[in-house]
Amino acid sequence: MNNDLRRMDIQYLTGVGPKRAELLRKELGIATFHDLIYYFPFRYVDRSTIHHINEIDGDMPYIQLRGRFVTFNAVGEGAKRRLQALFTDGTGTIEVVWFNRVRSIQETYRTGVEYLLFGKPSLFQNHYNIVHPEVDVYKPETAPQGLQGVYSLTEKLLNRQITTRTMQRLVGNLIKTPAVQQVAETLPRQLLAQRNLMPLSQALVNMHTPASIRDLQRAQFRMKYEELFFLQLNILKYIKGREERRVGFVFAHVGDCFNNFYNHVLAFPLTGAQKRVIREMRCDMGSGRQMNRLLQGDVGSGKTIVAFMTTLIALDNGYQACIMAPTEILATQHHETISEMASKIGVSVALLTGSTRKSERERIHQQLLSGELQILIGTHALIEDVVQFRNLGLAVIDEQHRFGVAQRAKLWRKNSTPPHVLVMTATPIPRTLAMTVYGDLDVSVIDELPPGRKPVTTIMRYDKDREAMYHFVGQQLRQGRQAYIVYPLIEENEKLDLRALEEGFEIVQETFPSYRVAMVHGRMKPAEKDHQMELFASHQAHILVATTVIEVGVNVPNASVMVIENAERFGLSQLHQLRGRVGRGADQSYCILMTKYQLSAETRHRLEVMTQTNDGFRVAEEDMKLRGPGDMDGTQQSGVAFNLRVANLAQDGQIVQLTRDDAQAYLDHDPDLATPEGQQLDRHLRTIFDKQQSWSEIS
Ligand code: ADP
Ligand code: MG
């Protein structure tokens, strides 16, 4: 039956016809009965009350007024032409304005007739007026009552007299058709009962013309539940299919490399979270299936050591491992940290980047093939076809969001059996999003920082307080600390941004004549960049003026101040990443957000979140609320289409979890969707998802 709705052409609905059908299709993508019934109002208004004009005060929602027009006046010429009317209900008068359709409105409405006016009062030059209200002749018996939907429409539709009122009439006609009244239920009966869900036919009606707020809420819950249930069912089905297919190396034992390192080299006790995550990965890699795990951990939570210890398990089972980083600086830093640890247990490590010399490169290629080289660390250079391993057992990818899915896939093909994959990211993704976006990856979280870290103190300062800020930085330098000063740089604005950075660099040099200042930005040659970074990392330079190239990974524990210039131009997760560059040593660290004086409310809120919390997950949740999940780092490449109609991943986390559990339980009792009901669900899944990107393309 549901499919019938999808096949019924909208032009045959009472009140539509070919012309309106064309408009609805072009402007709103509504081509069938199904499209219209699922075109839900974006807002609801209460039409059970009629307000008085003398009650209008402050910011009011859409309200109803009952009264008469006193005068109509067409004023202005050309584009400025408009129709002004005065409307009274005996308690006062209000101005009503139309900017288009002046002629037809003047011909339709009359003075003296009693109308019901519906619109939003706004204050204009100290008077309230209502622009483009809905107007109906008032008849007590037909006056709209209760909650009514308001539809999102385009200018073009409004010009062709398709208003919210029209939509309400069309939907009213649609609701009366047998196709809607007898629409087939899509969810399993048992879940309807268990979760007390409103049946589909009722929910569709209540989404448009709710009988009460309570009914509207139940209808919305049901529609969100349905949407997320099928999304989760699809993901789980995909994961299951994939797990059946994906064979992996069995790393059955933990041997000398791991044990020697753990017992004799590791200089500090692992945190509980680090231990748990390592256990999870041992379990994965021992299972005979390919590991595909996302490791999330806030900046400074100690992911590198976890990655290294995981590679040791691969080595203990006779396999090689590689670690891939998004930038040369990061790869080099990993190489330094890891080769130092590895040398103590006799493990061979090499670094391969774009600037590795030819002779060294050839040696690496040859030693990889012979198996002499055990761990290879590098940048994108790793995935080039010439790089062939003897037996690659594990690939670690650091700072995942810089790598595309296609690049990850290239690593797979280095063996006939794909290596285990560990993807690490410091951009925490809220759990509900992770389980949906990275449906194909298992997720581990390091939710604990190593002991003794002092939370970074974050403060906001206006440009006019710059002197005080420099004074503060000077104090830190005198205590032997180092400071970062970061400038925004975006491509569209590159020239101006670079100039601001260079000017900043000069001012900083003048302000701190007795200290050395290094500078790094993305437009420098790699060698120069490395040289400047190295000056700072080795403490020869005291201040690093930079763009966000330092955002990921760089570790200089002695740095205690992060100044972010034009902080209002950065996104939340970027600010959090930058802040993570300090607070890595034992000393109190500071993050100073420099902004201009005037900020929008949203920007102010964003920056205040930074001053209130150091918790990356909270920052990420806020970020998701502000930007919506589609814009989160990492989701663009996930391949998941975020075209949810009613549910919102940021706000409906609980329903995501609920539907995940219910979909899992359903699959537990009908794993292949083979029962008659299961088959029906499967067919429904296909109608929903077949048009969207194929899941098998993801990683
Ligand atoms: P991230 O997760 O940001 O990559 P790193 O792996 O760079 O973090 O670790 C940050 C710092 O914390 C490093 O200097 C590392 O040696 C140190 N560290 C990691 N784990 C622990 C621990 N359990 N106890 C103390 N220090 C640790
Ligand atoms: Mg790191």
Shape designation:
globular
Number of strands: 22
Radius of gyration equals 31 Å
SS-based class? alpha/beta
Q: What share of the residues lie within helices?
A: 40-55%
So, the CATH homologous superfamily of the largest domain? Answer: P-loop containing nucleotide triphosphate hydrolases
Provide keyphrases for this structure:
699 residues; alpha/beta; OB fold (Dihydrolipoamide Acetyltransferase, E2P); 5 domains; 7-stranded mixed sheet; 7-stranded parallel sheet; 25 helices; 22 strands; 41% helix; 17% strand; globular; binds adenosine-5'-diphosphate; binds magnesium ion
Description:
The protein is of the alpha/beta class and 699 residues long. The chain folds into five domains: 1-44 and 147-183, no CATH class; 49-144, OB fold (Dihydrolipoamide Acetyltransferase, E2P) (Beta Barrel); 185-245 and 652-699, no CATH class; 256-446, Rossmann fold (3-Layer(aba) Sandwich), CATH 3.40.50.300; 457-613, Rossmann fold (3-Layer(aba) Sandwich). The protein is globular, with a radius of gyration of 31 Å. It binds adenosine-5'-diphosphate and magnesium ion. Magnesium ion (MG) is lined by residues 303-304, 553.
